[in-house]
Each structure stands twice: as C-alpha cells, then as structure tokens.
Design brief:
Layout: H1 2-11, H2 14-31, H3 34-48, H4 52-76
C-alpha cells in the first residue's frame, strides 16, 4: 500500500491518494501502528485539501513510518 501511495504522490493523483491514505490509515490503526496511522492521516488531509506538495511530503513520511513499523507488523502475522 505504501508503494501505491508513493505512485499517487509521484503522479499527482490526489483523489486516489486520499482513498489509499484513508484505507492504509484505518488498517494501520487497527493493528496498533499509531505512528504509521498518523502519517497516513496527514497524507489523506493534504490530498483532500488539494495540496500536492504537502501530499508528497506526507507520503514520504508514510514510507518512513511503514519502514519502521514493518518488522513489528510482520511479527504480528507469525504464529
């Protein structure tokens, strides 16, 4: 999902970016990845607000937060 969000940011697809960020935010928060959810929220707000530069910046923050949360998230999927 983070890669798709990056693609939306790179191509300026704000509407698609807002939907992706919203979905990713919900999933992240359900799993307890609060920092990732917060970054997604900022990306969603920037995209919905029509702020392409803010969306790109926030999408980069999502990528960093996902990178940090990924090992923890992967551990959740192991029995």
């Amino acid at each position: 999902m983070a890669e798709r969000l990056d693609e939306a940011a790179a191509t300026g697809e704000l509407e698609q970016g807002a939907v992706l960020a919203h979905t990713f935010k919900s999933s992240a928060r359900q799993l307890g990845a609060v920092s990732l959810g917060d970054a997604c929220s900022r990306a969603e707000l920037a995209a919905r607000g029509g702020d392409p530069a803010g969306f790109v910046h926030a999408a980069n923050d999502v990528g960093r937060a996902f990178h940090e949360a990924r090992p923890w998230l992967e551990a959740l999927s192991k029995p």
